[in-house]
Design a protein that fits this description.
alpha/beta; about 850 residues; four-stranded antiparallel β-sheet; four-stranded mixed β-sheet; about 45% helix
């Protein structure tokens, strides 16, 4: 039965219906099947359950393109979805919500807070799942995971205990990054460094014996209240007699020693530095080497504690800085202030300046874990696309420090460590019934684990590890990780070393890095700039396919891309072009048109479009294999818009009565839809179902393959000359304002056989004359293009007498205007008094009029 498509494509009327059908049929489900090409697995980077998705999440389109393509190629393609509990980010949002009710987490207690947190997860986790479905993502929803679900929690505890038992997890007092707003420790990867205006404050520390003073410089004068030494280089001749002496710490009256340590740079500043072990990571190491006391002068929320002294107790750290500077100046200790710029660490979530702080935390010993993770990339077991990101990964891994994994948060995986009042510590997969030493009650560590600890296990924990499941055996290691470059440190590196440690091999073969989505001006999307784009708004206006296509076109691995509303409009126009082409094909089919096939006895134009389609199959497939999704989309756009719609459909109109022409139309359209399906799944399914076809759905149809038998180089060359010639004739007629109704004789010299009927139908020809030599007639328009030369009698294009009169009239008007402008420019009173911009405007006008006059004179000469 013949199917007709509505006059206009309305995504809102079809996308949800089509997606529901895919879901009901179970097409997204991935299982090990007989005869498949094997597994193809992508683990979705789990979006945070912090609320609404943003345009960056729409870049998951790239993963869906790869999954749909591999599924059509015959792989058991699994795209495993899930969401991330996002400890700090989610806790911040929940606490903010509670504050609106006048509540705090401490006020309602742990149990009540956790009930709220899980309710938040149910609300926003479910919302995110629905948003991902609206974008058309073909995830296996039967395998949906959450980083804090029971299985992931079991995996987290297993890894923690195993690493602890191997001595790779330890608890100790170390200097860590501290966020005073989030009130938690941060790993190095969670600290962003940004340049800020600052100053060097030079301060005199008097020697106790009255022999003078030593000068030090600091950017954080408030931390001097916690100084426990001044250090100089042991080979610095300036201070040879000072090492071992004592100085008085200004504002406090405390006595601290002058020590020698090679950490000090002799050529930097005065060559003497203050040592504050509790508030600087380098000073902490120096203090450990010299057994210096550790004096913490700040509270968790960035206020000065009692150790800072009564004059500063309770002050916020930056208010304390101002007070310290005033007091140093008043008491004669401040030597000078030097303005400077330097990089300052900020919390990547709330952007509060972090504070180095000594704290008892849990750490992962990274050096032993980094070695196999470095080797797996060096050996090529895991490849980065683009390759340049391998250097970034290697630099970070080769310079990695121990990872602080404990967080002072309630929302997250609780650390599986248990303490007894007798001092016994037990690390266990399950909570001990009692202390193994004294049989007393044990209390679990109140801290939670860094979000990235559980995310690092994502590729194998989601497949059932630590259980030996069928999914784990078949789908691990995964095939491709597709993610943005901004989380190489946070996530990619940690997944690789976790996979190497726990599974004995890297979790993925390829790390496909894409860039970030920026606005049309290249700016990062943010609330402060009010330039964020909600993908659901774009979908409501243009459809999911348009959004997906706009994100693929122009996309190249590793590079940022700019999004604009114009790109979405262009993608929608492309969808409309395809829709109209499909309607044309369908309207001209017979009631019982055959399924897609290639007929025998093909015309040159049929061979040409089949050959161009075959080349497109090859080019799109190669581009996808290289992760050049932008190139793949570009090739499809050019073939569909230019070669199929603008040329072949026009060629076919003369022979629609032939079954062979209709068969080629159906074959090309049907198979081109398959190539486009991974990028624009909805419209391709809708059209494919209306065409004659075999099978239930385009998404489980076979991917087209390159076929040498469909290469027709002679016909390609022939039709290339034909299309270029027709385009050149159309352009020349447009330049001369020749109306479409006016026909003209064409005299064509070409070594290739060209179809005269196409020139008559598409190039406004009244007759076509193929000649062997040059045309010798007078008064012609000559067109030279690749493979042919064309002559058109001028009299066929225009009424020479009328055209001459028109040009002479226009020339007289232009010459009169030019004369007036020239006279003005030659008038000294004008050029001497008029503003510069007015004079320049007159000169530009004169240049434009001169060019137009010369063109009109040339036109008259040609006539």
């Amino acid at each position: 039965m013949k199917t007709e498509l509505p006059k206009q494509y309305d995504p809102s009327q079809s996308e949800s219906r089509i997606y529901a059908n895919w879901m009901n049929k179970g097409y997204f489900r991935a299982d090990k099947t007989e005869g498949s090409k094997g597994p193809y697995t992508i683990s979705m980077p789990p979006p945070n359950i912090t609320g609404q998705l943003h345009l960056g999440h729409a870049m998951y389109t790239l993963q869906d393109v790869l999954t749909r393509w591999r599924r059509m190629q015959g792989y058991d393609a699994l795209w495993l979805p899930g969401t991330d509990h996002a400890a700090i980010a989610t806790e911040m949002r929940i606490v903010e919500d509670m504050a609106k009710e006048g509540l705090t987490k401490e006020g309602i207690g742990y149990e009540a807070y956790m009930r709220r947190a899980w309710a938040w997860k149910e609300k926003y986790g479910g919302r995110i799942e629905e948003q991902l479905k609206v974008m058309g993502f073909s995830c296996d929803w039967s395998r949906l995971r959450f980083t804090m679900d029971e299985g992931c929690n079991r995996a987290v505890n297993e890894v923690f205990v195993k690493l602890y038992e191997k001595g790779l997890i330890y608890r100790g007092e170390r200097i860590i990054n501290w966020c005073c707003k989030c009130k938690t420790s941060l790993s190095d990867a969670e600290v962003e460094h940004n340049e800020r205006d600052a100053a060097f404050y030079h301060v005199r520390y008097p020697y106790v014996d009255g022999s003078g003073a030593i000068e030090v410089a600091t950017t954080r004068p408030e931390t001097m209240l916690g100084d426990t030494a001044v250090a100089v280089h042991p080979e610095d001749e300036r201070y040879q007699g000072m090492i071992g002496k004592e100085v008085t710490l200004p504002l406090t009256g405390r006595t601290i020693p002058v020590i020698a340590d090679t950490y000090v740079e002799m050529g930097f500043g005065t060559g003497a530095v203050k040592i504050t072990p509790a508030h600087d990571p380098n000073d902490f190491e120096v203090g450990a080497r010299h057994n210096l006391p550790i004096l913490n002068v700040m509270t968790e929320d960035g206020r000065m504690n009692a150790e800072a002294g009564p004059a500063y107790f309770g002050l916020e750290r930056y208010d304390c800085r101002k007070q310290v500077i005033e007091d140093l100046q008043a008491q004669g200790f401040l030597v000078k202030i030097e303005p400077m710029k330097h990089n300052v660490g900020e919390c990547h979530r709330c952007h509060t300046i972090t504070e180095p702080r000594v704290s008892t935390q849990w750490f992962v010993k990274m050096a032993p874990l980094a070695e196999p993770a470095i080797e797996t990339v060096k050996s090529g077991e895991t490849k980065f696309v683009p390759e340049r990101f391998e250097k970034i990964y290697m630099h970070w891994m080769e310079n990695i420090r121990d990872w602080c994994i404990s967080r002072q948060l309630w929302w997250g995986h609780r650390i599986p460590a248990y303490y007894c009042e007798c001092g016994e510590t037990v690390v266990s997969r399950e909570m001990p019934e009692s202390c193994p030493k004294c049989h007393g009650h044990m209390t679990q560590d109140p801290d939670s684990l860094d979000t990235w600890f559980s995310s690092a296990l994502w590729p194998f924990s989601t497949l059932g590890w630590p259980e030996d499941t069928e999914d784990l055996a078949y789908f691990y290691p995964t095939s491709t990780l597709c993610t943005a470059y901004d989380i190489i440190f946070f996530w990619v590196a940690r997944m690789i070393f976790s996979g190497c440690e726990q599974m004995g091999q890297s979790p993925f073969a390829t790390v496909f890095i894409h860039g970030l989505v920026r606005d049309s001006l290249g700016r990062k999307m943010s609330k402060s700039l009010d330039n964020g784009v909600d993908p659901l708004d774009v979908i409501e206006q243009y459809g999911a396919d348009a959004l997906r296509f706009s994100l693929c076109t122009g996309n190249s691995p590793g590079n940022d891309m700019r999004y604009s509303d114009e790109k979405a409009q262009s993608a929608r126009n492309f969808a409309n072009k395809l829709w109209n082409a499909a309607r044309f094909v369908l309207m001209n089919l017979d009631e019982n048109e055959a399924a897609p096939h290639i007929p025998s006895e093909l015309a040159p134009e049929d061979k040409w479009i089949l050959s161009r389609f075959n080349a497109t199959v090859r080019d799109v497939t190669v581009a996808l294999e290289k992760f050049e999704l932008g190139q793949a989309a570009g090739k499809l756009y050019d073939f569909i818009w230019d070669e199929f719609c603008d040329w072949y459909i026009e060629f076919s109109k003369a022979s629609l009565g032939r079954a062979k022409t209709r068969a080629v139309l159906v074959y090309i359209l049907s198979n081109t839809l398959k190539l486009l399906h991974p990028v624009m799944p909805f419209i391709t399914e809708e059209i494919w179902q209306a065409l004659p076809h075999k099978g239930e759905s385009i998404m489980i149809a076979d991917w087209p393959e390159y076929n040498e038998n469909l290469d027709f180089p002679t016909e390609e060359a022939q039709m290339q000359v034909l299309t270029k010639a027709i385009r050149a004739i159309r352009n020349r007629r447009a330049e001369m304002n020749v109306p479409p109704s006016r026909k003209a004789n064409l005299y064509i010299r070409s070594e290739l056989a060209l179809n005269e009927q196409f020139f008559i139908r598409l190039a406004g020809a009244s007759a076509v004359h193929f000649i062997e030599g040059d045309f010798t007639g007078q008064g012609t328009v000559q067109i030279i293009c690749q493979g042919c030369r064309i002559w058109i009698p001028l009299g066929d294009l225009v009424d020479i007498a009328a055209e001459k009169a028109r040009l002479e009239k226009e020339l007289a008007l232009i010459e009169k205007q030019l004369s007036g402008v020239t006279a003005k420019l030659n008038n000294e009173s004008f050029t001497g008094k008029a503003p510069a911009n007015v004079i320049e405007g007159a000169r530009e006008n004169a240049r434009a009029l001169t060019e137009k006059r010369d063109a009109l004179r040339e036109g008259l000469a040609n006539l």
